[in-house]
Amino acid sequence: MLEKLVKAVLPAALAVAALTGCKEEASPPRPVTGLAGAPGKFDPPVVISTAKALRNDDKLKDGDTTEDNPISRWARDRLGIIQTNKWIVTDQNDALTTRIKLALSGGEELPDVLFLTDAQIPGLLPDLVASGSIMDIAEAFEAYAPARVKEAYEKNPSVWRSVMLNGKRWGLPQISDGKVGDPILWVRQDWLDRLGLKPPATLDELETVLDAFANGDPDGNGKRDTIGLALAGKRYLNDWIGDASFLFGAYGDQPYQWNRTKDGTLAYGSIQPGVKFALARLSEWYAKGYLDPDFGTHDEQKASSLFASGAAGVISGPGWMGGWPLSDASGTLPGAVFKPIPYPTGPDGKIGRIGSKLSYGSYFFRKGFDRMDAAFLYWDAVYGSLIEDPASDFAYGYAEGYDYILKDGELVYDFPGATSTISKHLLFGPGSAPPNVMPGESIERRVLQGHIRSPYEKKLASTASRLFLEGRLVGDIQLEHSRKNEFVGPHPPTMSAKGPLLAKLEREAFLKIVYGKAPADSFDEFVKQWRENGGDAITEEVNRWDLENGRVASAAEKLASGVTLR
Ligand SMILES: [Ca+2]
């Protein structure tokens, strides 16, 4: 769902997850063209097979097919690389995972290249490694990755951790911008204005606002029919829209994830003392009517619609919400003014929120595949468009007629039938512009300030709403307060066995406190239960993984980025 929404609201570059598939063919003699910076083309062409998971809405135009389309023609004509689809599956019910498991159990050879999402990797990586069917790519990366690609990884070394097992690098991770899902606070500015309130800068001021939004008839219809904060409590309290991470952060911790502590180890956030205080505060808010009575059954869609429909005056969620759903909602709620603001500070001046993943998926290579030179040529060509390389073949977009057209010599992005899903046909989608790589101001800031000259700036200006850009910029203000889940490895045995039960225990314990059905002190009993029922063993497993797979690089990267450890 996240993937789908992200695709709907973000520039395609942020959501590229190309899955293509191919037939096996004998490798032609290896040419030396194409790397070391010189634009090259393989002749004879290199054939690379892959697997593609497609959705019904990934439609091609004008007789194009999955084997023959603008992307495949570009790769063949410009790079001398021919993609073939060894497997094509429908992108539902995790069909690709099923297909891979079938291949592994039957001893069937994998496609040359496989893309797996961050959700699929933890379950599949141990099996893939154990089967001996994928290769450690460390050597090929050193030998063939172009300088600017190496730079992206050197500046974000912890991204390797999602593909590491036994200290080896089993895949090539996409690198996200590291902040796309970082939440901010969205408030109804027109409600604040009507009630004579300022945007809240502290948690206490936020509480005043929530009280006024719940009790002060902010929509002026004479009825007590609004709430303060829209919260999604169905799965857990830090979901990707309608999260409470700012409240946990104000008390110094993030539950539901593994956080780096001052002694360098990883600790599970949900059992830390600060969480108890945040739950107690949330319980007060619930008792005072600031939350929806049924928030514990609301998913992120429901929470989002409460805010977008004018029933709630505050929600926490990503900056891109300024595109969907808020730009659409502006048209249906007359007078509504949505405003993105940074999070207020907690009692001790603390601010904190959940942080986006650094990687949303990775590419894995068949053991014995020996055309990593071609793979990196392709990777680099797409990567150029992510870092706004003016010389990129994709500077205008991915394919004329799909995501852009040229009309009287001008680039046009807003036309009937415009779609960015053509990018799914790429053999490789390296992710987004990685953190720490792009100099100067963000493209969102440039476009918002009216600096719209390059094709990349024109594209963003034409496809993003002003509120989207503003939301993204507010997200950037508190980057140092984002906390990423530091555990990104395969699920170790106790986590696999006990994790679901512990998550249930955690969900029930937290909701009981917030609903006022159990005192805040029952948190201590939850911690005891969690630790005794597998939690302590999982903590050991997670720290073993951390030690064996790059703890040093990860801790150094955190310090270098200005993050203070708890
Ligand atoms: Ca009202």
Automatic annotation (TrEMBL):
<protein>
    <submittedName>
        <fullName>Extracellular solute-binding protein</fullName>
    </submittedName>
</protein>
<dbReference type="InterPro" id="IPR050490">
    <property type="entry name" value="Bact_solute-bd_prot1"/>
</dbReference>
<keyword id="KW-0813">Transport</keyword>
<keyword id="KW-0732">Signal</keyword>
<comment type="similarity">
    <text>Belongs to the bacterial solute-binding protein 1 family.</text>
</comment>
